[in-house]
Amino acid sequence: MSSFWSGWIIVLTVATIIGLFWLLFGNRTRPNTEEKTTGHVYDGIEEYDNPLPAWWLYMFVISMVFAIGYLVIFPGLGNFKGVIGWTQVGQWEKENEKLDAKFDVLLKKYAAMPVEELAKDEKARRSGQRLFASYCATCHGSDAGGNTGFPNLRDQDWLYGGSPDRIAETITKGRKGAMPAWKGIMTDQQINDVATWLAATDPAQKTAAGAQTFATYCAACHGADAKGNLMLGAPNLTDNIWLYGGGIGDIKTTLLYGRNGQMPAHENILTPEKIHLLTAYVYGLSTNPQ
């Protein structure tokens, strides 16, 4: 904050407090021996011109003194940081340090357990669920059921593999999908043929033209059998599980414009112990369905 605006805030704040003191004591009157009124009448009810009760006045004074003390100790007057130098960031860091110290022993215990064993531990699952809710649920949903463009983590369908090592690698390093756009490379007829061939659930509906076009343009990544490639992150196209929709229109959109999904890396966000615990939770979602 610039010195001008800092000074402006200080002046306004101090002036307001002084003005309130003046208003409170400058308008204080002594008890009337006569029953004088202010002259205001509300539905036949008159307002007496009496001072505030003493306890009420003292409450106002106490609140103002408290406000002055607060502004001396804590930040509130422009750039003045208060005599103790308190900040929200500092408070947050201290609380995090306390929590980390509290759970460090528990996390180290979990870190020594294999993922397969940890995934079956109920207490560990609850801790992993809290991590998931904080770092993963925004994209994958609170139930890990996924959404359009974000994989369902509760089934057995994995773009990059569902083993503990592959899940840990995904969480740590992140993933970046790259489905190329075929607009201008495939003809409209070829795109329609492939989309129809992929969307068809009845083998009799799968045309030779669609199969030929798939073999020419798609098999290099998705395999000749269209069952995908975990190393490339190319999905299985035969199991009726679709990340961006399995209707003909959805598939055409994918073919025409491509897809570029991204899973962010968490290696600079989570400690190795937390990644291990989160890996166990995600691994357990598909191997130990609740």
**Main sheet record:** 2 strands, antiparallel
First-to-last CA distance: 52 Å
Question: From the coordinates shown, what is the CATH architecture of the largest domain?
Answer: Orthogonal Bundle
| Uncertain segments | none
The assembly state of the depicted protein chains is single chain
**CATH fold category name of the largest domain:** Cytochrome Bc1 Complex, Chain D, domain 2
Tag the structure with descriptive keywords.
52% helix, two-stranded antiparallel sheet, Cytochrome Bc1 Complex, Chain D, domain 2, 5% strand, 3 domains, mainly alpha, 290 residues
Provide a descriptive summary of the structure in words.
It is elongated, with a radius of gyration of 33 Å. The longest helix is centred in the N-terminal third of the chain and has 24 residues, at 3-26. It has 290 residues and is mainly alpha-helical. Helix 8 crosses helix 11. The chain folds into three domains: 3-73, no CATH class; 89-177 and 264-287, Orthogonal Bundle (Cytochrome Bc1 Complex, Chain D, domain 2); 188-260, Cytochrome Bc1 Complex, Chain D, domain 2. The chain has twelve helices and four strands; from the N terminus they run H-E-E-H-H-H-H-H-H-E-H-H-H-H-E-H. The mean pLDDT is 90.
